[in-house]
């Protein structure tokens, strides 16, 4: 009953986005550039424009505000980008032991608060947000995270990811509360901040990188990992085996990549061969789910065992982007921290869930955490029915809110307006 609706609505939403953004965007892999040449194009030196010249950028800047113009992901190549990327590398560095111990500590702290009864029902993304809020607060300030700061961070990150998934509208005032807090704390940050940024920009850099991207991405990634473990208890039982655990992470990242699409704007003509070229200013969209589904037997099946006989680097597998074109700076930290956090969860509870596991996971991953005793079968049956219903009405909400935000972003043109008055290094320009 109505089970066809969510998929139709998702397709319709994609059409609305395409139309309003108005870019002549090309999505890969396609018939011309198949999976075999996907990375060649993604890695091309001229596929390096990030924000200027694409309607799609207005939408991302709208979702990530305040301060999208200094978010590393959206900075154009040049000295300012290099300065910011250097700072991020310093923040994210640390020994395996330190990074892992912090993940264990922050996970344990939050679980101690949440696990009060024999069975606890959670949404996995919500469970994980305070964990990573604590983790990245410690990384930035070098001290334990006070409760009020944690709440500010979670409110902000949740607001961003809900808008991104079109399950909620933006609440600028909620985000501004964290901005004010970070401004007051700027002098307490434990590593040097990018010197090419003004103080306000430094605040936005902290907010965008550590208290938005880092918290959101880690919470989403952990929701996928824990939901996969909940639905594959035979896999969860082997999680203490390091080698096997690496396969589980690879498979989770393959089937549920956090990026649907990453886009680039070509800054010069690209000629791949005599027949295939893209003029400067083309908007190239790289589809992670489509690429990750090629070259595997039964690509839709969650099967960590497939990694026993091959290595991720030989396959169509780029969960952290491509090395030659601005990969994720957390490619080393994220799997380490996720592994120890997941083990800490499984040390205390078993996980059970009957909900559908999709890549965008707008349900936030409903799950039962069971400390001891039998699995509550009736509650699992209830979760399944509720999940199907929520899917139907949520898909309609997403269509309505998504359309409203796309139109609003189109009207505000945050990226377009910025580049009307600034060059790619953030310097004011006169026309
Ligand atoms: C499992 C967790 C994560 C995954 C799967 C992930 C994935 C990715 C991917 C695929 C990209 C490249 C997109 C592109 O080519 O445009 C990216 C970029 C980025 N990620 Fe992550 N990410 C994760 C966690 C984090 C964390 C914890 C941080 C913390 C700061 C972070 C910060 C960034 C930044 C700043 C960029 C932009 C890089 C640049 O343009 O130089 N990510 N991430």
Automatic annotation (TrEMBL):
Keywords annotated in UniProt: Endoplasmic reticulum, Membrane
UniProt xrefs under Pfam families: p450
Family, similarity comment: Belongs to the cytochrome P450 family.
InterPro entries the record matches: Cyt_P450 (IPR001128), Cyt_P450_sf (IPR036396), Cytochrome_P450_Monoox (IPR050196)
Protein name as catalogued: Cytochrome P450
Chief localisation class: endoplasmic reticulum
UniProt-recorded Gene Ontology molecular function terms: heme binding; iron ion binding; monooxygenase activity; oxidoreductase activity, acting on paired donors, with incorporation or reduction of molecular oxygen
Subcellular location(s) per record: Endoplasmic reticulum membrane
Source organism superkingdom: Bacteria
